[in-house]
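User: Sequence in, structure out. Go.
Assistant: Echoing your sequence, followed by the structure tokens.
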Amino acid sequence: MLVRVLTSPAFLYRGEKALAKTGPVSREELATRLSYFLWSSAPDEELRAADLTDLGNLIEQTQRMLKSDKVRRLATEFGCQYLHVRDIATLDEKSERHFPTFLDLRDDMQEEVTRFFIDLIQNNRSIISLLDADHTFMNAELAKHYGFDSKGEWQRIDGLHAQGRGGILGFAATLAKQAGASRNSAILRGTWLSEVILGDKLPIPPKGVPVLPEEAPADLTERQLIERHSRDENCMGCHKRIDPFGFALEGFDAIGRARKADTKTTLPDGTEVDGLADLRDYLLTKRRDDFLRQFSRKLLGYALGRSVQLSDKPLIEQMVKSDLRIGTLVDLIVRSPQFREVRGKEIIANH
């Protein structure tokens, strides 16, 4: 009996009452939607008691929840998953011979990303700061890894731009995750930036693509190894689109430490850049809308618990044209029909 209860879909999934026609969800269902969006958990007593079908109460509760310490769950479950670093704390694929300090720093790398998103949410910062921030959060161990001075526990550190870092491009977590076990990978970093951050659609690699060695031959740098690989006619088209983004981040090794390297490259549209700072400026100017739309799609999809659809495009455009503060984006989502209503059976049938 217990096994049947614990494996029942009614126990495992948050179900909502199906309606014949599209209409508002119940106050209890709306409380559940809001709580799992912002807190990744069941509603607390205050949220359950509030009549969220009243728009004023809905917004009041949303603002309360965004100030709560429980938004750490949003920072982890959305923020870290959005950047594809949700599992960096358990990543065990790095070579201990090449990177003996990595295992002890994995938790700190993920904690930096989590604290950055908590600060973004609780202080209602613009999502542009994901690219442009001149600050982050470090403890003494992570600061040493970055080459910064910090003697205490976790604290905010400013002045990252002057040190060649800043924003998601300079996180050790993102740099380490998008790299190999014993060497950098401009291919992984370029693909991550293209698909995850900018929302570009890349074709599936052709079959029979040769696997690159884990260590570059003695007569080649890591960049030269990839450039030689990318000359293959079957691979050239995609690599021209993704490798330059990764080459711009060659100033960081496979666990995110700064190093001297050739970071000059020409991006797919012909823009010449040299290193993280130039790449950041390019994203903030020429690819700004792509970045904003992709983030908005990801946040909306997370809030709704489904893939974004064509009918969501007007809401996404509203988000992109807003003041871009994270609180504003959340507010637009929770006010939307997509969040406050359930699609009727007739619409589902038509789809």
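User: And one key feature?
Assistant: The mean pLDDT is 91.
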